[in-house]
Amino acid sequence: MGDTTRRRTVLAAGAATLAGTVLSGCGNEGGDGYGAAADNAPAAPPADTAGGAAAGGGGGGKTLAQTSEIPVGGGKVFKDQKVVVTQPTAGQFKAFSATCTHQGCSVATVTEGNIVCPCHQSLFKISDGTVAGGPAKSPLAAAKIAVEGNKITLA
Fold this sequence. Notes:
Elements: H1 2-24, E1 49-50, E2 63-66, E3 74-78, E4 83-89, E5 92-97, E6 109-111, E7 114-116, E8 123-125, E9 131-133, E10 145-148, E11 151-154
Antiparallel strand pairs: 1-5, 2-11, 3-4, 4-5, 6-7, 7-8, 8-9, 10-11
């Protein structure tokens, strides 16, 4: 139980940091651009990134992938960056925290239109990060990406 409390404390601190960054307009200075929500915490609105435009600002972050690496109707998990990028429909790219909102495990795969957490089989929709099944009750937090040409970067 101590581990769960510690995870929630860390997640809450991360969410507070993210909220402060967003509210202060600091952009990408020192922030990672996403946070994970606890089961009963409100979720961040999904990032809606389509057709090369970034949600909430321009690029300038770390390159994650080429657009051709993200399959239509699927996605790819970037473990080191703790983010998952999806392409629900052709040309529409979304990004979410790769930290499951159930107990903080890292999601591992994207299959059949869902982002899958291997720990307890929570499923999240690739279109908006909402819960599609499993013990998770809160959606994955949105992450900001920029799509410029064929390059996807963390915003």
